[in-house]
Request: fold
Amino acid sequence: MGELTSGAERAGKLAQLDAPIWDLVVIGGGISGAGVAQQAARRGWKVLLIEQRDFAWGTSSRSSKLVHGGLRYLKEGDIKTTLHSVRERQRLMQEAPELIEPQSFLFANCLKRKPGRWLFQSGLMIYDLMAGMRSHFWADLPTTQTLAPGLGPPRMRGALVFQDAKTDDARLVWRVLMQAQRDGATLLNYVAAQGLQLNAGRVAGVTVQDGLTGQTYQVRTKAVVNATGAWADRLRGAVGGKPMLRPLRGSHLVLPFWRLPVAQAISLMHPKDGRPVFLYPWEGATLIGTTDLDHRADIDVEASITPQEVDYLIDAVNDQFPAAALKPLDVSACYAGVRPVVDDGKGAASQAARDHVVLDESGLITLTGGKLTTFRLMAQDALALAAPHVGRPFAKDEALIFTPVDALNPRWSASVRHRLAARYGYLAGALSQQASEAELQTIAGTQTLWLELRVAAQFEAVVHLDDLLLRRTRLGILLPRGALDHLTRIRALCAPHLDWDDARWTSEIERYRALIAAHYQLPQIKPETTKP
Reply:
């Protein structure tokens, strides 16, 4: 059927690790690693991808969920990054329109606030020129108030409206991984790289450990791609690489949509420091982000939002929507991620360069930095450096990433078919073939189908409950208390496919409850006291 890893299939894949030499081992199961595996497998390379935790566990499930063209980078004079981002955004929207969707943005123009209308509009003209279309326009004050009821920052005179795109970042990773496996890549989560093996000073293999059994394996390979994000400097130490990353934390708030209903994405410059902040409708909720701070905590511990960041984001929203009078208790969930930004020596975190870097250090190809939108270009840059070690030809190309989606059951509603195509791509028909009418209903307060839980448990390499509720689906951040109130039905739906006994379920629920309390609820609020 195309599932990534059931229990038996996982054992079979682990047994292959000691097999003859791999062309390429990719370490890291976020968007960068997924892109490298997909691009390499499509070219016929023998590829193994391992991830020490879950697929998309790190930055790639904690982003701002935007597939954007990098308008802020244009402001900073980074024309190349903006151009690449705009073109890749357009490409992704054409290839996977159900998953990468257009989103209208509105930026209020206010007297004596930067940037002024004409400067911002000049940037939007260049932005549209790069995309090959005109999408922005000026909205006068009455039109602005129609597009965004309640919007009322001080001295607002109108707004500029422009187009970008949004996605479910974890599902984008999953779709790319599905394509990689379709083309022959072997993919394993909860398998960690313990160290590199060197031969005559260059990388010849990787010692890996199965996180579920503790068993170690010696994996021989012609080259390794280090796509571990914020952890990239650790592997580089084995080949003499000097640290180059500046981990930056970006935190977000999630509100019930009824508490702050917006049809437009609202983009703004924070009144305190001029940093870009946004809020927009996402998956039936309202998402607010983001901060940009040096992350000095242990990167092996999940990042968490701080009280100061909560206040910062709420202040930004209340400046734009003063009548909303948001308070921390209105927040239903939050999340924080660590961005692997290359340290360019600039003082302000928000000014650090966002372009990616690719290095070849004795056969260890490190790919880091960059952004969600440009993962295909990043992957091709990494493979261009890996190719001489692998001994295979490589040329950059414009081939499709995603296999087209086949027609789905015409009796189902357009919204259901759209949802299935977005989540499962070319496998949508096969995975939904046996769906019951009840499974095709949405979970109240979200756009998630009950079917998504069963499919994830059955086919999508779920090892822990947070894999299911935070990444395969996003219920853990979309519903109050991390969806704990729905666990009885979730267990009934998923238990036949997870092979967990009562003790394992109890253990997973307690583990998940602690995780939600520590990292996905506001610092001073526990799940049982959060407002529904």
